[in-house]
Amino acid sequence: MSENILLQEIRNRSGQELLKKIQQELRVQIKGNDDVEFLHVVLQNQVENQKWENISLIVWAIEYFPDRRFTPVLCELLKQRWNDDYLEAIADVLFTLKDENSIPCIIDSIGYYIPGDDDYHFSRKLVLALGHIGTQQAIDGLEQAVQCSESELVRKLALHELQKLKNSA
Question: Which positions ≥6 away from 89 have C-beta within 8 Å?
Fold first, then answer.
């Protein structure tokens, strides 16, 4: 068995284990075979019911089932910032999704400081997401981060991502 197939199998098992944990902890059942739809419905339900403590678990599961259908609700969570606990996990998922539709919410959130995040991990993850997306709109967001970010770490990373994009063009 090749290493890639083995890694994919481990990833699939881990994703399924997270789904089971969500089912148990939130007392919800999967209806049908669409794991993405299940997660989307559960996430929407938790947001509507303001169950912020459950959002991180669901967002972590989304990484195992990446789908652009999650972008609108993830961007809404980023925009509203009802709870800081899940923001870094959302930044990770937006990197994985590589969805151009997430660019405006990423750009709007780069300047947000999570108390205690003195190394600006959250903002830097958003910069990496823009670099990963790599469109002109994402490049514009990186340039804005270089010009406007209060953090030197964020500015340097944005500049690095811009340079990588220019070198790959």
Answer: 56, 59, 60, 63
